[in-house]
């Protein structure tokens, strides 16, 4: 009589089966903390902001208002003023920071005398917080005794002395100058690192071809460090689209909204307009998130490398 | 015997726990962490109240104003706010959202009626108006004597005399008026709203702030032109837009010095500190005059009176009776006198002025003389406005207009647009 009992699988095969099964316990144990933090501090706030943006959110009362907040935002001239200022800042700053940073990096790459000192001096501003930088520059821009006006008076340009952050015509450029001063050193260091990692044979080949300094920079160095430049531009762009601290410390968005950014306006609407409503500020946050995302995608598309570089 | 001792011990612990259970703890959040005189006054009041009410313990937490407001916005929304907290009457959002306890049971007979009125919302009072202040035109007695300017017995210069003062001061390279808006949204606007309240009178000025009177009204435009004529004559420091409130005080009485200083009567909280802590230098003689008369003004005796630091009770408190009892403990002429003598700024509590003493009694006498026969407009514009009009008023009249970076026409246009729906 044939046995109906199935043969017992060999011990080795059983072990192999167990090994092939994903170790769910370990996966959950490792992922859960990070997942919990992500859900609590990123996903939930984002979803909650979206939820709030179509409501009037008051203590103990959240009323659905549909797209009314979005319609009001479209008509909000102060918001569009803030958008304009922020865009100007986010477009001008990356260009200035990366361009000046590139020139400084080239200077160091060319081993100018005192390069160690300059590397530290140019990089130092980045080590300070916006709060400290803001306070320092409020002093520098002081009309009576600030360094900026003192310098102008000293070199006989007293006619150009002005209230740098008190005059709506020059307040925004004055603050853009501050962020440029602050972040150029960071760009310089990153670009210098990128230059040092360039393949020497390509540069030597260019020299053998009698390639001049400018041509080597334009046709060899910049194309090779283009991904780094792109990253720096995107980082700077995102940073300026979110800028808050410096404005808050120096001008609080004034005078006459000339330095109002979307972040400062959002804060004012949330905490300084004598209302508890978080719906409208959430709408600003959602719209601005979409705009920033579109800007980053646009920049990436603009700078994308069409042809793969080979060296 | 040993068992008996254990039994007694257990019973003692049980009774002690029960007694502790009856202890009421009130949480109390207040501004003035860095303003020692005011903090000392409130802490003394807490000590006295706790001594008189052994079953109540008040747990005080002191903040700076911005940090307090941010903490309250979150805590009240989450239902975890303190039982009693600091507030100012412009924070109507608290009342609008039902977050404050109706303080009708408070002993209002010991509180000035105007102070109650400022804290009344839809017929119910919500705040204990501890601190009040007026806008005063302080002047350096010696500087004005040097300029040959005499303050009349009425304590009020005409607009023309004030223009002369400005010109004389500038001619001697002295700043005519110290004022700065580097860190506050209101001092620069003192210039305009003190002039407007005199020109329009109480009712029309209230209508103007409420958007019921156009900013294109010829009286408003004329007043703005008058103020502009002063600023164009060099009234303000060149550092006006970045000068901070504390700095504007020392600018007036110390370095570099100014002839006058348009400031809230909380001037004393900085000026009466020792000189090495930013106070007036020894021998400095401060005088108080009224804001200059405005040509064809409807109410030259009109001026602003604001209620500042106040205490309110959280509508969600579990101990409303004790919280109100604590606020009631402030309502006492002796407490009001103690506030006046120590803090040297007005209060919404009724005081016995005949008994005011202390080292600043002469200053207080001069302050009350400047306020004599005044008709008060209650609250600053930025306390009465909300939303966009408040934002535009602050940007235009606290900063740009006094700084001369916006014309009268544009200022009027901006304000009218702010009220347009």
Key features of this structure:
heterodimer, A: 311 residues, mainly alpha, MetI-like fold, 14 helices, 2 strands, globular, disordered C terminus, B: 421 residues, alpha/beta, D-Maltodextrin-Binding Protein, domain 2, 6-stranded mixed β-sheet, 46% helix, 15% strand
Task: Explain what the structure shows.
The complex is a heterodimer of chains A (311) and B (421). Chain A has 311 residues and is mainly alpha-helical. Chain A is built from 14 helices and 2 strands; from the N terminus they run H-H-E-E-H-H-H-H-H-H-H-H-H-H-H-H. A two-stranded antiparallel sheet of chain A has the order 1-2. In chain A, helix 4 runs antiparallel to helix 11. In chain A, 31% of the residues are buried. Chain B is α/β, with parallel strands linked by helices. Chain B folds into 2 domains: 23-131 and 308-351, Periplasmic binding protein-like II (D-Maltodextrin-Binding Protein, domain 2, 3-Layer(aba) Sandwich), CATH 3.40.190; 134-303 and 369-419, D-Maltodextrin-Binding Protein, domain 2. Chain B is built from 17 helices and 13 strands. Chain B has helices at residues 2-21, 36-52, 65-78, 92-96, 113-118, 141-147, 159-171, 190-209, 218-232, 245-253, 268-271, 320-328, 333-343, 361-370, 381-384, 387-403, 408-419, and strands spanning 24-30, 56-62, 84-87, 120-121, 124-125, 128-129, 132-140, 175-178, 258-264, 286-289, 302-307, 310-313, 375-378. In chain B, the strands form 3 sheets. In chain B, strands 7, 8, 9, 10, 11 and 13 form a 6-stranded mixed β-sheet that branches. A 5-stranded mixed β-sheet of chain B has the order 2-1-3-12-6, with helices on one face. In chain B, strands 4-5 form a two-stranded antiparallel ribbon. In chain B, helix 16 packs antiparallel against helix 17 (408-419). The model of chain B has no long low-confidence stretch (mean pLDDT 91). Classes of the chains: A mainly alpha (311), B alpha/beta (421). The interface between A and B is medium-sized, with 27 and 33 residues.
